[in-house]
Specification:
Elements lengths: L5 H26 L3 H8 L2 H34 L5 H13 L2 H12 L4 H8 L8 H25 L3 H9 L4 H12 L1 H16 L3 H6 L6 H12 L1 H32 L1
Helix pairs in contact: 3-7, 3-10, 4-7, 7-10, 8-9, 10-13, 12-13
């Protein structure tokens, strides 16, 4: 048997430390509540309402990103233009901006002193303390994850296939929906899941825009502040479970895509 070099053991040790750093706190949190506590939490109407609101709002945000982000992702994948890197940097901004700042920025635009806020008010659309406000925030933070994932998928589709379709008389619209999108569908689903997972975990921006109605992360925070770990852990466990389920689907899709190659 070939002797392993010291570098191998260094990489293995670093990997073990990182895995332990991630898993130990999560395992401790997941195993702290008893099964009866977890079951009792599901009977709490406020908890179920907050979890379903999180799922609904994050799913709605991902759907908005799909509708408006897919054309932009295709445009960025297929077009080179002056200032493209600047546009991509703007799309990535929500990733690096502190989350409370995102909430403050959205409220600055949605306030009555801003033209957009005045227009929304006239249309009867309320951002502050509303489900609409929550979806707006989650769309803002989830957009980069969706657009970047889908753009990578479109870049992986050969332009030659699109040119052949166009040479046969198909329009750009027809070519996109019959050729490009079916070939990149996994990236679209991956982007949708990543956007949903990012949105469902958002707290900092949401708590600025809409403390009520409560999504799950806000309820976890409130229960921790009011009652401590014992009452916040069961809700956290269910939320982590949802996120793990989303990422399991993501990994399965990624794995099947890799095998096809």
């Amino acid at each position: 048997m070939k002797k392993k070099e010291p570098f191998f053991w260094i990489t293995l040790s670093c990997g073990a430390i990182i895995m332990a750093f991630i898993l130990i706190p999560l395992i401790e949190m997941m195993t702290a509540p008893s099964f009866s506590m977890l079951k009792e939490t599901l009977k709490d109407k406020d908890v179920m309402r907050s979890i379903w609101l999180s799922i609904y709002a994050s799913g709605s945000a991902a759907m908005i990103c799909l509708i408006f982000g897919t054309p932009l992702a295709y445009f960025l994948a297929r077009t080179d233009f002056k200032g493209k890197r600047f546009v991509e940097s703007i799309i990535d901004l929500p990733i690096v901006i502190p989350h409370p700042v995102i909430g403050i920025a959205i409220l600055s635009v949605a306030g009555r002193n801003h033209p957009i806020g005045q227009l929304l008010s006239e249309l009867g659309i309320r951002i502050m303390g509303s489900v609409t406000g929550i979806i707006t925030v989650l769309t803002f933070v989830g957009l980069p994850f969706y657009i970047n994932a889908v753009k990578d998928g479109f870049e992986g589709v050969s332009q030659r296939l699109e040119k052949v379709s166009r040479s046969l008389g198909a329009s750009m619209f027809s070519t996109f929906f019959r050729i490009t999108l079916p070939l990149a569908w996994r990236s679209v689903v991956v982007g949708f899941i990543m956007c949903s997972a990012r949105a469902i975990s958002e707290f900092g921006a949401v708590v600025i825009v809409a403390y009520h109605p409560m999504i799950a992360p806000v309820m976890i925070y409130e229960r921790f502040e009011g009652y401590g770990l014992k009452y916040s852990q069961p809700v956290a466990v269910w939320l982590v479970g949802i996120c793990l389920l989303l990422f399991l689907v993501l990994r399965l899709l990624t794995l099947s895509k890799t095998k096809e190659r």
